[in-house]
Amino acid sequence: MKQVRNTHAKTEILNLINSSEVALSHSDIQKKLGDLCNRVTIYRVLERLENEGAIHRIVNVDGVVNFAKCIGKCTHEQHFHNHVHFNCKKCNSVTCIENVIPEISLPENFIAEEYNFIISGICPKCSNA
């Protein structure tokens, strides 16, 4: 197993993602970090954090990749993210919704190992505005 390296950039990126209520895109992270590190370093750190089981990636309906904290039993070997992601059409936020588990019925001989659901609509913050 590879040694886990903790750099200042990695710590700050993980803190940003862990403290966010919504998934963050690369550009969101870069804006929040300011001049702490360049975009390539951010990509490398995000990949490392995902490989370590600390964060997971969500591909939004518009193709933008977002990152959110892993909750529970994720490891460097396997991620467990069988939950719904909600994409707000107004503010473009992406939120993990852990307590909603869709029921999936597959044809015979198909075995589901993981899935990724994205529901589009209006989030509570935007619907109340």
TrEMBL record:
The keyword Repressor applies. Binds 1 zinc ion per subunit. It holds the Pfam family FUR. Gene3D superfamilies: 3.30.1490.190, Winged helix-like DNA-binding domain superfamily/Winged helix DNA-binding domain (1.10.10.10). SUPFAM superfamilies: Winged helix' DNA-binding domain (SSF46785). Zn(2+) binds at residues 88, 91, 123, 126. Its cofactor is Zn(2+). InterPro entries: FUR (IPR002481), Fur_C (IPR043135), WH-like_DNA-bd_sf (IPR036388), WH_DNA-bd_sf (IPR036390). Keywords: DNA-binding, Metal-binding, Repressor, Transcription, Transcription regulation, Zinc. GO terms for molecular function: DNA binding; DNA-binding transcription factor activity; metal ion binding. Belongs to the Fur family. This is Fur family transcriptional regulator. It comes from Chryseobacterium artocarpi.
